[in-house]
Amino acid sequence: MKRLLVGVLLSILGVALQPDTASAASAADCAALSIRVKNLPEASSAQCGSEPFGGGGDQGSGTDEYIQIMGSDSITVVSHAAASSRTYMRRLGVKDVIGNYGIFESTDNWGDETESNDFAVRRFNAKLAGSGAKVVCFGFVHFSGHVARSTGYRHLISGYSCNFSSTPPTDSRIDQVVGSIDFDFE
């Protein structure tokens, strides 16, 4: 088995942060993905995409999917990495996964890791790369599909939701966002 960690995460982030990627699609076309966000807010726009990662060998291989939702005062990204055969992802904490998202120039003020709807969740403050805008966020991760006789998993759902206000996300907002994530694998 090949251990795949940073390569998968960087690949996910590359896809999730490029809305003009050739594989990007409208919200209506997101139905083909194996992840979904139920009850998208009406005042939002969503883009999604899917792309293979890795070339096999020591780098492993699989598929990355993402849904990016832009609201009037927020951004939410849900990513899914699905490992192919001979590839798996090591279980990491929220801070470790979110630290690989290139959208953040810096992060700080990390809260405790908690759980909501089978996702590990953690609040944090961030500064966006490029613009330097300060946002309040929470990140989330969910691993599934444990690979027998290993410490790895076939699936990683991760992402973040950030507000462009200074008000930290409430427990009910966190529950609403991660509770709206639906997938057809385990």
Q: Which terms summarize this structure?
A:
disordered N terminus, globular, mainly beta, two-stranded antiparallel sheet
List the helices and strands and how they pair.
Elements: E1 2-3, H1 6-16, E2 25-26, E3 35-37, E4 45-53, E5 62-70, E6 74-83, E7 87-90, H2 94-98, E8 104-108, E9 114-116, E10 119-128, E11 134-146, E12 152-163, H3 171-179, E13 181-183
A few lines on this structure:
This protein is mainly beta. The protein is built from three helices and 13 strands; from the N terminus they run βαββββββαβββββαβ. It has one domain.
Account of the protein in words:
It is globular, with a radius of gyration of 16 Å. The longest helix is centred in the N-terminal third of the chain and has 11 residues, at 6-16. Mean pLDDT is 82; it is low at 1-25. It contains 3 helices and 13 strands, in the order βαββββββαβββββαβ. The strands form 2 sheets. Strands 1, 2, 4, 5, 6, 7, 8, 9, 10, 11 and 12 form an 11-stranded mixed beta sheet that branches. It is 13% helix and 46% strand.
